[in-house]
Amino acid sequence: MATKQSYFHGTGRRKSAVAQVRIMPGNGAIIINGMPYEELFTSLEHRRAILQPLVVTESLSKYNAMIKVNGGGITGQSGAISLGIARALISAEGHLKPILRQNGLLTRDPRVKERKKPGLKRARKAPQYTKR
Question: What is the pTM of this model?
Answer without folding.
Answer: 0.89
